Structure prediction request, 220 residues.
Amino acid sequence: MIATPTHPDETASRQRMLAAARRLVDLKLNRGTSGNLSVRCGSGFLITPSGVPVEGLSAESMVGMDQAGNAVTAGKPSSEWRIHRDILAARPEIGAVVHTHSMFATTLACLQRDIPPFHYMIAATGGSSIRCAPYALFGTQELSDLAVSALKNRNACLLAHHGMIALGHNLDEAVALADEVEALSEQFWRILQTGNPKLLSGEQMNAVMEQFKGYGQWKR
Prediction:
């Protein structure tokens, strides 16, 4: 049964999603109808609708879904709803998922490149690298399974020939991390032009991750 949302927490989440979707476009992380985002809501989640450009979005157009993959409010969910559902199910500490087709992250994803520890801010994603999940057709369970695997002990990953995913306890965190991953992707792409990237050691990255435990928005 399709219901109209009335819970005040859900109403606030819908407003935050609309603001976040607009923010992703302002940051040039998405354009047109590309990308999608979701937030945990009760026993299910809210996700952006399929095929709607940001200028056509409204708080009411966000689609509520349950863990079985059923829409519980009006609208057609993003074709990538399986990724959002499965990440939120596998990662109870995560409250929001952002998927973008941003320029430099997608460029590296099309090269099927992990991003190694060339810069200490790689640790902001939860580890010493940003993994690139193997290619699978968009909207499929296979792609979702590969994304969940690439995100093990990580809060961001690339999707081969597709884009990137960033996670957060809330939407603000997820959007901020997506922006950071895109900046790191651009930096690494530029370094690759030299043909000689220098990397931090495992010991150095472990020290960074220890430092991050109590530092600003990246603390864990």
